[in-house]
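Something for you to look into today, if you have time. I want to see for myself how the chain folds. Leave the record below and I will have a look.
***
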Amino acid sequence: MSIVDWPAGERPREKLLQRGAAALSDAELLAIFLRTGVTGKSAVDLARELLDRFGDLTHLFATGEEEFCQVRGMGQAKYVQLQAVLEMARRALREEMKVGDALNSPRTVREYLQLLLSGRQQEVFVALFLDAQHRVIASEELFQGTLTQTSVYPREVVKRALHHNAAAVIFAHNHPSGVAEPSQSDRLLTDALKQALQLVDVRVLDHFIVAGMNGCSFAEKGML
């Protein structure tokens, strides 16, 4: 049955207008993005197939062009559209962080970092550089590593903090393993970065670990 034949209250677009985007399932939201299905499959059916194949939205968003285009009904145009939507979401969150105190909007910071890092296949280390009012000056991916580790050099982090004339910094990195708990090496690295940055009067406000849609904050756990 085509979506146009569904009861109005069950069609994704009408449901969104009536109840808001939060009321929709992942498949329904994805179906709105897809707009149309393929022969024998509605947009919702196709969305469910994509989620079944890639596991969840996080891994779908991180899928490369070649693998994405292997799905029947998907192509380069849809891949480009998806990447554009993701980048717009990242930029919107980044702009929101620039005009407000990052400490007063931890949800925005967390959502931005999860959108940036979740689904990445290798470890990536990110720094958010902040001014004295804790507004974000810049976001930089400083180091990339392997599936299980990345090498982070405090000297290079200090150089970037001085380059941006930052008063504070928030660090983040991902765990492709899906385990959000900080390792002993994560704790040692955070301590080393704090000590290095204290020498140039830059505060470390937090260190987030992103593991899929889960996360861990050093500050919230009292580890800073």
Q: What stands out?
A: The chain has nine helices and five strands. The beta strands are 124-130, 136-144, 168-174, 203-211, 214-217.
